[in-house]
């Protein structure tokens, strides 16, 4: 049987470009090469698209752009093409599916998904609506909350919000609060504020990444996560737990785990774990997810579950949370990649 050609998109015009390189490296490495032919599609930080024919170690090391193995390409939006157009040689490279392994802006937010949907090439992962809904911290909260699931109390401000309106809105909240760009990830641009003294600085920081920001009350308790896989029938991995020694799960902690630790399974009762899994499945369906997503929750000391956020392309390195939660229920990394592709071809 002829091998299926799978386009893996890596990098991206996003503050999370470097994280994507690591996730993509693991996805490519764990793809069954007997079944699939992996076509590597790199997007630079500036947003240029290339087919990359070099060594995948150069993706991991972030040296892929320097090696002269790049050819300018675009995804054809002509449905009869179903492939990439090599702009330098004027050739068409047919694809059987596209797996965007991109995080955050311009990749996890529905933009790339829209392009792939237009092309008629099967897309691995969530589609346009779901990706963009999940990317917006406020819209996703409001939708999930309307189904009776708890979320942190929050306010939203735009970069044109007047100072007086801001100060009125802030009065609705109790400190500590989290100030976040509306659509970002990896904790980029997020600050935890204990009192109003530092609020201005935190707001300025968040506005570096978006034109809208959300300010949320702190939810007391621990952070837990659920890896959800599938479509009509859903599989949920073992629930995990993040143990923080102080502060919050910021960019440094996420990628170094210097002072924090991740437990899989979480140190919670079976009853709570089952409740978290059911809630995660419900949220996955409410937000119309497809193939996979990681649902992040808070568990309060009273045993209440709060929705924090959902990642439609969660971190996918070999030590990332999603694959680790799946491993605990007997699904290895390569099986996971195989399942995600199989849902679509
Ligand atoms: N309302 C909240 N209450 C308590 N901790 C929070 C809250 N919001 C965010 N955090 C902390 O900040 C981290 C990053 O916030 P999150 O909304 O998940 O952003 P990102 O999309 O960048 O991962 C969380 O993992 C958690 O440690
Ligand atoms: Mg998060």
Q: Can you walk me through this structure?
A:
- The chain is α+β, with helices and mostly antiparallel strands.
- It has three domains: 4-124, Rossmann fold (3-Layer(aba) Sandwich); 133-151 and 221-342, D-amino Acid Aminotransferase, Chain A, domain 1, CATH 3.30.470; 154-217, ATP-grasp fold, A domain (Dna Ligase, domain 1), CATH 3.30.1490.
- Helix content is 29%, strand content 27%.
- It is built from eleven helices and 17 strands.
- The strands form three sheets. Strands 6-5-4-3-2-1-7 form a seven-stranded mixed sheet. Strands 12, 13, 14, 15, 16 and 17 form a six-stranded antiparallel sheet that branches. A four-stranded antiparallel sheet has the order 8-11-9-10.
- Bound molecules: adenosine-5'-diphosphate (ADP) and magnesium ion.
- Adenosine-5'-diphosphate binds at residues 152, 178, 180, 184-187, 190, 216, 218-219, 223, 248-249, 296, 308-309.
Key features of this structure:
alpha+beta, Rossmann fold, D-amino Acid Aminotransferase, Chain A, domain 1, Dna Ligase, domain 1, 3 domains, 7-stranded mixed β-sheet, 6-stranded antiparallel β-sheet, 27% strand, binds adenosine-5'-diphosphate, binds magnesium ion
Low-confidence stretches: none
**Binned strand content:** 25-35%
Largest sheet: spatial strand order: 6-5-4-3-2-1-7
CATH superfamily of the largest domain: ATP-grasp fold, B domain
Characterize the quaternary organization of these chains: single chain
Helix content: 25-40%
Number of structural domains: 3
> Number of helical runs?
11
Ions, cofactors and other ligands present here are: adenosine-5'-diphosphate, magnesium ion
Inertia-based shape:
globular
Q: What's the total count of β strands?
A: 17
H-E string: EHEEHEEEEHHHEHEEHEEEEHEHEEHH
- Give average pLDDT, whole number: 96
CATH class of the largest domain: Alpha Beta
In CATH, the architecture of the largest domain is 2-Layer Sandwich
Q: Ends: how far apart?
A: 14 Å
Structural class: alpha+beta
Please summarize the sheet with the most strands. 7 strands, mixed
CATH topology of the largest domain: D-amino Acid Aminotransferase, Chain A, domain 1
